[in-house]
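Async update (no meeting this week)

Hi team, since we skipped the sync, here's where things stand on the single-chain job. The sequence we agreed to prioritize is pasted below, unchanged from the tracker. I ran it this morning and attached the output directly underneath so nobody has to dig for it. Comments welcome in thread, and please keep replies under the output.
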Amino acid sequence: MDAKTSNTPSPSPPTKTPRPPRRIVTYTILGGAALTLIAVLGIQRQSRAVGTRAPRPVTIAPTPRAPEPPVQTPVAAARPRVELVFALDTTGSMTGLIEGAKKKIWSLASFVAQGQPTPELRVGLIAYRDIGDAYVTKVFDLDADLDRVYRRLRGFHADGGGDGPEHVARALDESVHKMSWSQAQSVVKVIYLVGDAPPHTDYHDGYDYTRAARAAAGKGIQLHTIQCGTDNAAESAWRRIASLGGGQYMAIHQDGGMEDEHSRYDEELARLHDKLGHTVIGFGSAAPAAAAEMRAAEAAPVAVKAARAGFMARKGKAVGGEGDLVDSLASGAVKLDDVQADLPVEMKAMDKKEQASLVAEKQAERNAINKRIDELSNLRRKELDARDDAAAKEGKADGFDVAAKKALRKSVKANAAAGFDL
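Output:
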């Protein structure tokens, strides 16, 4: 049978899915992309919001730190110090020594000032005699004002005595217990007991020279004895006292055996000494005392001026006490603004710039004078030391001043904490 004529129905053609219009497809794609973009942007915005949110504070216990050490303010090193007490028999037989000591006190002070580094110096005095005399003791405490010490010493005069022994025990006891001794071990502390008669041991008044000597040693004070003359009883006691007091015994001539101290440099030193006094600007209530000290210093013998000049140059001062504006400003004791009412009349008429200029001028002049004094003093000391050495080689006995210097040098060496050489 012909296929075209067959009665079998023909199969239906396949049904085609109608294609959406092209515009709808475009909108669908764009819409989906937009939704996707919105979703992505939303996620990014949320992510940024999370990233920029301030974190919740978390409390963390601090790690303990060691406390900072306190700031240490530099402390200026303390100057070395020497404290000397002279217990001097001032009865009639001691005239030569007393008069010689007045001339030598500045020599001893200048000797101490030559220490390296220069130590501070305080000197005390005790004049002693005996019961029944005008006084038993006169006590002058340790003092850094050597002008005042010199003035007190000049007031000592030999008189009284007569029965032989003197009240040595009381003089020693008061040397140990009535002086304002420093407590520091580094301070060189020395007592010189100077006399020509043995101690009374029959008074029973509570004073005992052996107990006083032991007390000196217990306080770190070296007790040196200088015997004038040749009394055997005095020698026995003086040796025992020195032994108990940790010092040394020395014997000198009855009159002190002190040679006149002079050198080829004394005249120039004396001139510089007086010139130094003209750098003082007196101020305040102490100005009259400072002026009196300078007048007394200028009236001293040439050799005394030379020795005093050497001491003052080392201290950078012109007077021993207060009342000098130049020294007070240099040491920081006062400020110019704070002492306007205490200035001398001629300075009150100046403005503050002129006042400061005047003080600076005086200080510069003083520095130049002191420099020259120091140079000459070193030469003077060498000359005098050479003379003493020559006298020792010839077998001449030491005088009071030489004996005192030798004993002091040993005391300095014996104190390991002294902090200076002499």
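Quick observations from my side:
The first helix runs from residue 22 to 52.
The beta strands are 81-89, 120-128, 137-143, 188-195, 221-228, 246-252.
Reply here if anything looks off.
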